[in-house]
Every structure is written in C-alpha cells, then in structure tokens.
Design a protein that fits this description.
Layout (H helix, E strand, L loop, with lengths): L3 E4 L3 H11 L7 H17 L1 H11 L13 H10 L2 H19 L6 E4 L5 E8 L2 E5 L11 H14 L3 E6 L9 H9 L4 E4 L2 H10 L9 E3 L4 H10 L4 E2 L7 E6 L5 H12 L6 E6 L2 H15 L5 H10 L2 E4 L3 H11 L1 E7 L3 H4 L6 E6 L5 H6 L25 E8 L2 H17 L3 H14 L6
Length: 442
C-alpha cells in the first residue's frame, strides 16, 4: 500500500495522532557533534576552515579569493538566464513585495498630560544573512528562497544583505540564483553552504563579515548550525521537513488532493503528507490517484518513501473533529478542500499557512501568491509565524519624563524599588525629588 489509512477513533489512530503531536526533533547526536566541530573550526580558523569544507563537499578547486561572487559574475548571470524565467522571477518578486510591504511596522509615541512621553522606536538590524540551499548541486536553483528571504529584509531597510549558497563542483552558482539576488538588491553573495556557511555568518571570517540575523531553509546540518549559533545572532526558526495536511469532505477532488500530497512528498523522504477526511470514498479514491500520479514524477522514489514511511490518511467522523485535529497537529501547510472553506477559517488556530478551496494548491504559496513560504514546521505553528519583515526589525522603548511627571510618579517608583531591595534605584529618584525642593506624589 502506498499510504496507510487509519480511523481517528481507533487505537491505531490514537497512536498515530500521539506521534504527530510529538514530532518535534533536533538533529541526531552525530549531527550535533559534527556541527559543533564545524562551528568551532570556522570560529578559530576563519576562511581557511570555510574553504577546507567547501573543497571537501562542494567545489574541490575553491580558494578564499573565489568565495565571493564578483560583480561580473552577477551581471553575466542575468544575460545567461532565459527571458521567460526572468519574467517569472520579477512577477513573483512583485507579488511578494506587495504582500510584505503591509507588514512594515512604524515607530509610535504616547503622551500624557504631565509631560511624560513613551513610545517605541522601530529600526532594522544592520545586517542579515540569507541562506539559500544548493538544490541538487545547483541543477535546481531555489530562486523562490532568494525572493522570500531577500525581499522582507529589503523592506525592513536592512542596509547589508548577504546571501550564501553552496557552489557546484566547478565553484559556480547557478545564474538564476544570482539573477534573483540582483532582482532583490543583494550584491554580496558568497559561494559556500551547509553548517560552515552558517558559522561564517555568525562569527565572521576574513572574507565573510558577521551578520545580525540569519534566515533561510536548509538540511539538518543547516538547521542544527542555526540552533547552535542562536543567541549570538537571531534566526528565523529551526525548520524540519516540509509538511502538508489536507482537510477534505465528500465534495473534494481526489486528483487535487493527491497532487498536493505528492508536491510535499517529493521534497524529502522525511516530508509529511497527511489527509484528514470525513469520506471513506475520498480516502480510497485519493489512494488510487496517488498510485497513478506518483509514476509521473521525476522524484518518484523520494515521494514514495515519504508517503509510505511518514504519510497517512485519517478518517474523521466530522469536519469539526478534522479541523480540531488539524489544530492540534499545527501543520506547516493546511489546505481546506471542503465545501465553503471560508466558513471553517475562523476555527483554524494553528497553521503556518492556510490554503482555501480546490483551486489553491500549496505550490501557489511557494512561488507567486505573495505570503512567505518560510513557515514553522514540526508543530511549532502553535507558537511561531511565517518569516516576515519583523524578523529584521528591532524595537527600542522610548521614555521621557518631565520634572512634574517624575514628581508625580516618584512615590510609586521609590516604594516598588524599596520592596525589591534596590536602594540605589530608590535613591536615583530621591535625589531628583530632593533637588526639586518639592514634595513628591505619594
């Protein structure tokens, strides 16, 4: 059987549900140790370590002087990319830009009658590192990752935006990636990847200056490296394998369901493709479609492994039960292929992104719809959000007291400071009150 079918109400269904709710994982011990060694090597030896790892795993002839893509390479890349591909990149960029411009936050001020001024100052970080996976040795350039990471950083106003991506065996980056970088205003591109690229962004090397924020998807070594440098820099999230959960009723189209499940399954053998349906007929027909459609895929074996080892079809008694289970699972991509999906949207509490109706494939969100496709996985949609402009922004509080405002509040400040045993705090107010020669507010 290409995928298992389980009733939610059975013991097997309970076990499967429990496993889905507890799917958050870090890299295995071997990965953690290997990444720690890589980060330490890059921290101590800088370019030398980055080049050593890049030669070993990606480009045998790489030198430190070749790590940064030249302006000539960037300009030539645009000429090498098919005009239709460039048009699609620009089309997607405009959609993504329009959506994310709505996310930009403004500084604000509150005033009180006594002269107190408080507020929030919103400022971008000074620098951001954007990780873009290599895509099968550069043969499948993930241009959408360049757009989804680079555009929000530009809108936030980050002055220095750096892209890192693994080179191919000849030490080159696919021209489509460089063209996409130019499209979003990235002029600093380094040809290195995996954990050593993350380490370089976090600690800096002779060639690659350190950044403040690191974003972007990657394999388990990239995810583990981001986890280990978190705190020294801000990261977007610790991402796991791609996920989709489709809630379907008896009116759903099994061909559409199967196509969208396979669109996730082809990413990775660990990808999670789930269907929760109230209709046994839909479940059975979806299995037939999966078996038929998987044979047409270039990544057939990857998709088959994901479906057999991770995928599942769950039978629910009602849409209420199906949606509530989806909330508990807190999936990366949630599709509502049901009659009147907008009716059910208010019931959705936890999902990275929600796709409504039969003509909204998850792939639209990956490329041109506009919202970001960097989304929380492994159940973290309960607590996390899609990548957006805010990850590149800092907020500083603004506080300004007039003389009278401090006199009015002095009693409260001194009383709370005394309660906490912080006499210098209390004294810092008292000295001003005494200098004013007036009685402070009680």
């Amino acid at each position: 059987m290409i995928i298992r079918t389980v009733s939610v109400a059975t013991e097997e269904g309970a076990r499967l549900t429990a496993a889905l709710l507890d799917r958050f994982t870090f890299g295995d011990a071997g990965c953690r140790e290997a990444v720690a060694e890589i980060i330490d090597a890059v921290r101590r030896r800088g370019d030398e370590a980055v080049v050593e790892y890049t030669r070993r795993f990606d480009a045998p002839g790489m030198t430190a002087g070749e790590l940064r893509a030249t302006e000539e390479e960037m300009a030539r890349a645009v000429e090498e990319v098919d005009d239709r591909v460039l048009a699609s990149i620009r089309f997607a960029a405009e959609r993504i830009r329009t959506f994310h411009e709505r996310e930009m936050e403004d500084s604000w001020i509150l005033t009180r009658d006594d002269g107190t001024i408080t507020g929030r100052l919103v400022r971008p970080v000074d620098s951001a590192g954007l990780y873009v996976p290599g895509g099968q040795g550069g043969s499948t350039p993930l241009v959408s990752s360049v757009l989804m990471n680079g555009i929000p950083a530009a809108i936030a106003g980050v002055p220095r935006r750096v892209m890192v991506t693994p080179p191919n065996s000849e030490g080159r980056v696919n021209p489509a990636l460089l063209a996409a970088a130019r499209e979003v205003g990235i002029t600093e591109v380094y040809k290195t990847g995996s954990a050593w690229a993350i380490a370089a962004l976090a600690h800096g090397t002779e060639t690659i200056p350190a950044v403040d924020v690191i974003v972007g998807p990657g394999n388990q070594y990239v995810a583990e490296a981001k986890r280990q440098v978190m705190g020294r820099v801000r990261i977007d999230m610790i991402a796991g394998p791609s996920e989709v959960l489709i809630v379907a009723d008896e009116e759903a189209n099994p061909a559409y369901i199967a196509a969208d499940m396979l669109a996730q399954a082809e990413h990775d053998p660990q990808a999670l493709a789930l269907l929760i349906t109230t209709s046994r007929s839909i479940a059975e027909r979806t299995i037939g479609e999966l078996e038929k459609q998987v044979e047409k895929l270039s990544r057939r074996e990857v998709a088959l492994t994901a479906l057999r080892e991770k995928g599942a079809i769950l039978l629910a008694d009602s849409l209420e039960e199906a949606v509530e289970l989806a909330n508990r699972i807190a999936i990366e991509h949630l599709e509502l292929q049901v009659r009147d999906p907008w009716q059910w949207l208010p019931a959705v509490r936890h999902a990275g992104a929600v796709f409504l109706g039969p003509f909204t494939p998850e792939a639209a969100g990956d490329y041109v719809a506009g919202p970001n496709h960097v989304l929380p996985t492994m159940g973290t949609a309960r607590i996390a959000s899609a990548l957006g402009v805010e990850i590149f922004l800092k907020k500083s509080s603004i506080i300004s007291y007039s003389r009278q405002a401090l006199l009015n509040d002095a009693g409260h400040i001194r009383r709370l400071a005394a309660l906490e045993g912080l006499t210098a705090h209390e004294r810092s107010v008292a000295v001003r009150v005494e200098d004013s020669g007036e009685k402070a507010g009680q």
